Amino acid sequence: MTSIYIDHDAETGLTKKGNEGLVSQNIAPDATNKGPCGIFFIVFSWFAFIITFPLSIWSAIKIVKEYERIVIFRAGHLIKAGAKGPGVFFLNPFMDHFKKVDLRTITFNVPPQKILSRDSVTVTVDAVVYFRVSDATMAITNIENYSHATHLIAATTLRNVLGAKAMTDILSSREEISHSIQSILDLATNTWGVKVERVEIKDVRLPEGLQRAMAAEAEATREANALFITAEGEQRAALALKDASDILVKSPAAIQLRYLQTLNIISAEKNSTIVFPLPMDLLGSLMKK
């Protein structure tokens, strides 16, 4: 008995047909030794297919999209060639069973995890995981549900990695922690034919009491910095005034000019009578005369 497959070549755009014998490289090595029951089942399946023709032909033709692969089991045995696709395939509906796998990148949100950090602070962390199937055959044969398993191991790895970090490290080193989680997940899911491409920590929520304490600490730090800057400015202003006074003491003419400048500023602001004291050195010179 033989089965016919129809494959589509993506590069040439042509459809290729061929015969695939039961004893070939596309069948697992143990598929040829089925025993009397296996041989009877194969003969009966082809007999049923012929009897129900042409109705059975509609269930025998399978179309696999560009981003999909199918893993075919023939009489319970995995086809040795592995996953097939994309293209059009002919399967015996009474003998062949297949599983379809999507190769596109899948994203999921890790449920919020309450984690006790290394410094005994309880934080709630949300994360996003991006993964795809790298080997469709391994994803079907090595694990029952690769998507559910990836969800579970992502949540467990997130708790284990963040539990070994201090709260300040969790808040300040998100990118480094994300790379660490991605490496651990990729290594764990490699035997399932799953490739973890990226892990992102969305949010880190702290207890309300700790948030208020951190806000008060930050406010106190800002106030201390403001006082320090004000004191530093006053110190610089005092030094500048001291330097100016030293210059005025050394030059009496400069004092006179400063008096006149001050009088000009005051008279420009308000129209009023201003009593301006005369310098003592000027009075002394008049009294001598």
TrEMBL record:
Compartments, as annotated in UniProt: Membrane
SUPFAM superfamilies according to UniProt: Band 7/SPFH domain (SSF117892)
Residues spanning the membrane: 39-61
InterPro entries named in the record: Band-7_stomatin-like, Band_7, Band_7/SPFH_dom_sf, Band_7/stomatin-like_CS, Stomatin_HflK_fam
Pfam families according to UniProt: Band_7 (PF01145)
GO CC, one annotated term: plasma membrane
Domain Band: residue ranges: 59-218
UniProt KW keywords: Membrane, Transmembrane, Transmembrane helix
SMART domains referenced in this protein's UniProt entry, alphabetically: PHB
Family, per entry: Belongs to the band 7/mec-2 family.
Protein name: Band 7 domain-containing protein
Organism for this UniProt entry: Artemia franciscana (Brine shrimp)
